[in-house]
Backbone:
């Protein structure tokens, strides 16, 4: 028997239909309702749940009452237990999402399925981190995070595959956070908020032989080994945010910050979660090099979560001392597309364009084009 | 006659040999020692140190001869060689007809029973064939020196990588030249082998047209580059017309140029390693040059180099002394990179290639390539009209002797992809292979219609593709549970990926399972 | 207007009507027009200058047979050559099976339409495992020396160490190949052999063993034909230092000799040529690697490994095990590399082992032992000739010392040749300390009277 947690964010997506860009904040939500917006997430949740009904597995749903899940589960005809009851006197909000997610993790559900957008993903990430596998049914306006299936139906199918044990190890996928105010003013500026562990389908290749069944671990291990071997003595290495760079820290046996910039020298941690000014001070004082990875589905090496690595920092270091690392699967996902830079300084962005070696494994590099 | 064959593969449900074994049965009897020998030395086994005597006989199957032959007869019927099918679906493998006369000649007792260490005077026949083959490849490649040692294409890459290191070592640059540049779509061995030989591999992405990105190449080249390893045309079927620019830049940087010519079938007599200015190149005698694939070898990756690199070749090489009219093995290569293969190479494969080239000549080889290119273009035109099929890198539509297609559209429309098509293809009595990694072209298949296939053959294979495409759109049930008419039904792949489940030998199977995959209770 | 053109039997579409139709279909006047990507500067300026073709099959046959007839084979002359390639009898059933075109002309199809090949090779792996007394055997690699080289690199990866010790009594040609392959990943040292017994020098071994040795490599029987009677002691010594024992063995000996799995080898390797594959002038070779089925070993194989799997209709199904290890799946993270090796020879070896069975393998080993002992005895009686130079027990090959005869091995072999005999491999300049010695090999195809004939002939030559 498998336990599937279900959270539906009833207000996700309401902004989009009426031309608002999201529903963060009660003010925006009120505006949306006034414009006649109807909840769309429940319907999308149902599309996913229909698939789950048909997969023939013994699944028990853990969910929240009312619009946060019960209605969708009941409509799909699935057996469910209500684990979380939001305060009926208030409209449900992010706090409810967070509490529900925590409870589901505590109850030991095998997979948490949620219908919502980036905001919902963020709330869940804040609550459970990478403790349990989480998969998103796309139902928001902002779907920049990599934790969503392509369609609600696909989410249902993927959930079934995962619960049947037919998927590889869940992968850490980025949860992105877009500044809504900027977004409404037409500027897309997302940053890495955190990670969720998301199932993904083994790509079926030669009749069942699959790539990606081997976990990212093996690929990343070679790449991390290459970085460690590259580290010269008495040189300070700034290790940027991301789960890929985190593997390097792991290989060194160090506890870095997933979302921050850490400093490593002679294989020891000499600084954690450094600010821009911290970094500039270090660069002035000693030999410094930088290790960054590719963040976000669009392939940014600067500008999507490593803003501490500011234009001043980038200029001070220069490209010789900047190393880019990425797993081969990440680079395959980006096949045909360039890597992007968005430092905030358009002049610098232009200077950074060109070709860069990306370390993808032990003794393995891929030439990648950088554009802005 | 119907549109498509009604095919059913032989399905014998053939037990494993171990299941047919009964103690005491005999199949072939070895000679016994003569009485006088036995009376002098006894049973022979007492002379062995006791600790090294085998205590328990090996648990090999015991079977009588008629039953053994029947077993293998059944297994061979459950296999599709080129002789049985329109084998164009195994793209890049260059599946062509291996003429029977060549098999017969290669199987001559005058070759089979030759020991490699016999006095060279008794091996003049095979040495002459080796030598003449090398001479012919001088014309075919435009290069000057030959080694028959590599036992396959990847082995050819190994020979080249080993020579690269030897070369740079002798020039004192081995420690500084530690990088090899190759491309995204070169053969897997072009990256894996240099890595195995201790090089760092820098991979060039393709540009929009699917060709190696020139700008990326210029950025990657440096004084650290030991060599470049390029396949041309690549498995997409696209020929890099700027190849000489790539070699020119490599040379400017002091790097060696290594050519993987596994895909030579479309360009014989048209363009060569010489014109592209490569230092080394290898050819697959079991692909373009007709030696049969043997289920995966034996094979040969015949290596050619410029005269400048002769001394670095794996020793020995075959030479001819005109003054005494003798062929001989020259072991005297003081700069030799070492040894790549036991003895000298796979003689029967070389003999077959020799026969093939001799039966065709210059005009014949050119006709081979013309037919291969025309077959490919003919097939491509019609394949691209199949619903759901498109070409990889549409910005560069020209192809030489093979094409990598994509079923991306079919996948988007129906949810079925290249893996599904592969399984259904087995129901039509032929092969279909998805392509070498990396799989970045979505839902790929690579088709290579060599010159062995008639127009009717190509039309038949196209009808199969059309039928399967139609089924994906209109009769998904058939696709979902394919293959239906093959030797066996759907294989459960968990038992191949899960260390807790896999069984690589019968011995391992019996440790883990009884009956039909019923787990043996843990002790 | 259909032009006159030559039609080739192997090129069906060279026939003019079809050619025309296809050109029209594609929309070009000639095939050259399709080669748009090959610019002028890359084109050959003149045609290749290949020999005049033999268009008729008879001409070709006559030509090639004429050349091959200049060979003198080891069936026409009496051969005592071994040294890594062995003149065993190949049962007719073997040639029959590997001559079947369904096997001969197949390649890399799926376990559905190429089920036969998978089953044949799975059975090969399984039989080798029984013979070698290990759990796992791979699909064959290029040759025994490649298998040795890969086995040592596997040991390096498994232990994480950078050095190997190679037996001084290993085949020198094999050593050249192995050391070429190990470069630059593993370093190596040579362990001396005892000049009296021909076996590994245990003292020298112990002095060289340390915590940075990944593996010790031995051959048994070794190049000198001597059986390493202390193999189990070698295993113990290596294991004590946390290293692995890589043992190269002759599978044809394992009907009577103890298999490496029984005396402590961790990785066994060798060549399957002696299992029913014609010598083919050194081309009939294929390598095997055997280990336990522990994950840490299996993960390190570069080769394909075929495994058994159930199907939806309860048939035997097959496929690649842990295929992602290989460079077919992912060239970034692959172990070494894999390609087209020697699969058909693997099927030959399978047929051979099934045809021989345990009884046949034992009888084979026994007759080889008996006749080679007979040869040692008979030759040892020739004045000036010693077959007791090395005291270690031998299997099918042994060292014959001619240094007291007043003639060099070279001269002796030349004279033997004149009389229709291939003498043993000259070890002068091949193995230090064995000047004017030769390596003689007696397989089951050498009869008692053949040996008598050799003795008589040598007697004449040395008189």
Residues:
């Amino acid at each position: 028997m498998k336990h599937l947690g279900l959270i539906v964010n009833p207000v996700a997506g309401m902004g989009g239909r009426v031309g608002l860009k999201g529903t963060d904040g009660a003010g925006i939500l009120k505006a949306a309702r006034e414009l006649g917006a109807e909840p769309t997430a429940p319907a999308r949740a149902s599309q996913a749940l229909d698939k789950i009904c048909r997969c023939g597995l013994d699944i028990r749903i853990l969910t929240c009452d009312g619009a946060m899940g019960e209605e969708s589960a009941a409509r799909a005809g699935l057996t469910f237990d209500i684990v979380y009851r939001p305060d009926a006197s208030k409209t449900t909000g992010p706090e409810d999402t967070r509490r529900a997610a925590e409870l589901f993790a505590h109850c030991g559900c095998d997979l948490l399925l949620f219908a919502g957008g980036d905001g919902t993903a963020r709330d869940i990430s804040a609550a459970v981190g990478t403790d349990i596998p989480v998969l998103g049914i796309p139902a928001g306006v902002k779907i920049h995070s990599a934790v969503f299936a392509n369609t609600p139906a696909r989410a249902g199918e993927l959930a079934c595959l995962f619960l049947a044990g037919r998927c590889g190890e869940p992968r850490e996928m980025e949860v992105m956070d877009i500044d809504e105010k900027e977004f409404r003013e037409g500027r897309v500026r997302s940053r890495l908020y955190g990670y969720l562990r998301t199932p993904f389908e083994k790509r079926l290749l030669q009749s069942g032989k699959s790539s990606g069944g081997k976990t990212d671990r093996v690929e990343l291990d070679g790449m991390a080994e290459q970085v460690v071997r590259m580290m010269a003595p008495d040189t300070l290495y700034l290790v940027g945010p991301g789960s890929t760079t985190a593997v390097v820290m792991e290989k060194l046996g160090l506890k870095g910050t997933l979302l921050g910039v850490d400093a490593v020298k002679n294989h020891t941690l000499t600084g954690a979660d450094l600010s821009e000014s911290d970094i500039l001070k270090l660069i002035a004082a000693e030999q410094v090099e930088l290790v960054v990875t590719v963040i976000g589905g669009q392939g940014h090496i600067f500008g999507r979560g490593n803003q501490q690595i500011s234009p001043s920092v980038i200029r001070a270091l220069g490209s010789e001392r900047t190393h880019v690392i990425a797993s081969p699967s990440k680079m395959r996902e980006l096949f045909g597309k360039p890597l992007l830079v968005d430092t905030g300084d358009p002049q610098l962005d232009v200077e950074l364009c060109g070709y860069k070696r990306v370390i993808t494994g032990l003794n393995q590099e891929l030439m990648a084009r950088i554009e802005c | 006659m119907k549109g498509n064959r009604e095919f059913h593969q032989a399905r014998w449900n053939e037990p494993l040999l171990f299941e047919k074994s009964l103690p005491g049965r005999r199949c072939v009897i070895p000679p016994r020692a003569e009485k006088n020998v036995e009376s002098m030395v006894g049973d022979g086994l007492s002379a062995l140190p006791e600790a090294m005597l085998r205590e328990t006989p090996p648990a090999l199957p015991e079977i009588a001869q008629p039953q053994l032959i029947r077993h293998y007869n059944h297994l061979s019927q459950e296999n599709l060689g080129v002789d049985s099918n329109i084998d164009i679906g195994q793209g890049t493998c260059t599946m062509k007809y291996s003429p029977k006369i060549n098999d017969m000649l290669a199987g001559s007792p005058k070759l089979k029973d030759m020991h490699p260490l016999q006095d060279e005077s008794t091996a003049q026949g095979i040495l002459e064939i080796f030598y003449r083959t090398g001479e012919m490849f001088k014309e075919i490649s435009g290069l000057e020196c030959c080694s028959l040692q590599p036992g396959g294409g990847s082995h050819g890459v190994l020979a080249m990588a080993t020579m690269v290191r030897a070369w740079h070592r002798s020039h004192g640059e081995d420690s500084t030249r530690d990088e090899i540049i190759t491309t995204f779509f070169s053969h897997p061995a072009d990256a894996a082998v240099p890595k195995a030989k201790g090089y760092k591999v820098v991979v060039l992405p393709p540009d929009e047209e699917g060709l190696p990105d020139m700008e990326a190449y210029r950025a990657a080249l440096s004084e650290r580059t030991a060599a470049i390893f390029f396949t041309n045309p690549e498995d997409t079927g696209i020929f890099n017309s700027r190849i000489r620019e790539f070699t020119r830049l490599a040379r400017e940087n002091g790097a060696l140029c290594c050519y993987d010519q596994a895909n030579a079938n479309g360009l014989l007599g048209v363009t060569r390693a010489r014109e592209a200015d490569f230092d080394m190149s290898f050819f697959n005698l079991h692909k373009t040059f007709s030696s049969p694939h043997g289920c995966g070898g034996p094979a040969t990756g015949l290596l050619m180099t410029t005269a400048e690199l002769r001394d670095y070749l794996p020793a020995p090489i075959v030479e001819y002394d005109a003054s005494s009219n003798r062929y001989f093995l020259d072991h005297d290569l003081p700069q030799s990179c070492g040894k790549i293969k036991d003895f000298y190479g796979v003689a029967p494969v070389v003999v077959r290639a020799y026969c093939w080239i001799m039966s065709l000549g210059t005009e014949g080889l050119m006709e081979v390539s013309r037919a291969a290119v025309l077959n490919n273009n003919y097939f491509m035109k019609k394949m691209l009209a199949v619903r759901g099929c498109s070409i990889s890198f549409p910005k560069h539509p020209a192809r030489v002797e093979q094409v990598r297609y994509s079923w991306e559209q079919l996948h988007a429309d129906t949810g079925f992809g290249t893996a599904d098509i592969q399984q259904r293809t087995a129901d039509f009595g032929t092969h279909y292979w998805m392509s070498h990694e990396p799989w970045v072209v979505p839902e790929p298949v690579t088709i290579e219609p060599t010159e062995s296939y008639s127009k009717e053959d190509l039309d038949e294979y196209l009808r199969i593709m059309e039928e399967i495409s139609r089924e994906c759109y209109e009769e998904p049930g058939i696709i979902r549970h394919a293959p239906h008419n093959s030797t066996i039904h759907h294989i459960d792949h968990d038992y191949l990926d899960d260390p807790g489940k896999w069984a690589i030998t019968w011995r391992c199977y019996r440790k883990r399972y009884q009956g039909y995959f019923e787990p043996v209770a843990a002790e | 207007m259909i032009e006159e053109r030559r039609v080739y039997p192997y090129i069906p579409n060279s026939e003019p009507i079809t050619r025309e139709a296809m050109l029209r279909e594609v929309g070009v006047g000639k095939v050259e027009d399709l080669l748009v990507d090959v610019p002028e500067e890359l084109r050959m300026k003149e045609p290749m200058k290949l020999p005049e073709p033999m268009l008729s099959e008879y001409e070709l046959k006559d030509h090639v047979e004429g050349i091959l007839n200049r060979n003198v084979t080891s069936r026409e002359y009496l051969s005592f050559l071994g040294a890594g390639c062995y003149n065993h009898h190949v049962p007719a059933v073997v040639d029959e099976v590997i001559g079947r075109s369904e096997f001969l002309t197949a390649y890399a199809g799926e376990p559905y339409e190429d089920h036969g090949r998978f089953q044949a090779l799975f059975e090969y792996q399984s039989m080798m495992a029984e013979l070698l007394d290990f759990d796992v055997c791979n699909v064959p690699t290029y040759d025994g020396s490649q298998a040795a080289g890969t086995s040592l690199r596997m040991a390096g990866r498994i232990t994480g160490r950078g050095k190997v010790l190679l037996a001084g009594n290993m085949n020198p040609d094999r050593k050249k190949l192995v050391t070429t392959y190990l470069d630059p990943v593993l370093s190596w040292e040579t362990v001396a052999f005892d000049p009296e017994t021909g076996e590994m020098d245990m003292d020298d071994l112990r002095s060289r063993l340390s915590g940075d040795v990944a593996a010790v490599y031995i051959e048994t029987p070794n190049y000198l034909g001597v059986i390493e009677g202390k193999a189990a002691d070698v295993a113990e010594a290596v294991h004590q230092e946390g290293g692995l024992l890589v043992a190269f063995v002759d599978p044809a000996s394992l009907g009577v000799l103890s298999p490496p799995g029984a005396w402590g080898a961790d990785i066994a390797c060798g060549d399957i040529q002696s299992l029913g594959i014609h010598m083919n002038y050194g081309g009939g070779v294929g390598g095997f690697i055997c280990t336990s089925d522990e994950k840490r070993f299996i993960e390190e194989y570069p080769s394909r490994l075929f495994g058994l799997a159930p199907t939806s209709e309860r048939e035997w199904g097959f496929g690649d095990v842990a295929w992602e290890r290989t460079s077919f799946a992912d060239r970034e993270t692959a172990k070494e590399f894999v390609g087209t090796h020697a699969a058909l020879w693997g099927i030959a070896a399978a047929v051979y082992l099934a045809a021989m069975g345990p009884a046949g393998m034992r009888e084979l080993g026994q007759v080889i032992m008996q006749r080679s002992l007979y040869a040692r005895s008979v030759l040892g009686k020739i004045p000036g000739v010693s077959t007791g130079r090395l005291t270690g027990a031998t299997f099918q090959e042994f060292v014959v010392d001619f240094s007291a005869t007043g003639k060099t091995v070279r001269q002796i072999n030349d004279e033997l040749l004149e009389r229709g005999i291939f003498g043993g491999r000259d070890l002068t300049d091949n193995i230090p300390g064995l000047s004017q010695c030769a390596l003689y090999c007696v397989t089951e195809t050498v009869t008692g009277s053949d040996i008598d004939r050799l003795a008589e002939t040598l007697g004449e030559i040395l008189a």
In short: DSSP finds 16 helices and 14 strands in chain B. The mean pLDDT of chain B is 95. Residues 491-523 of chain B form one domain.
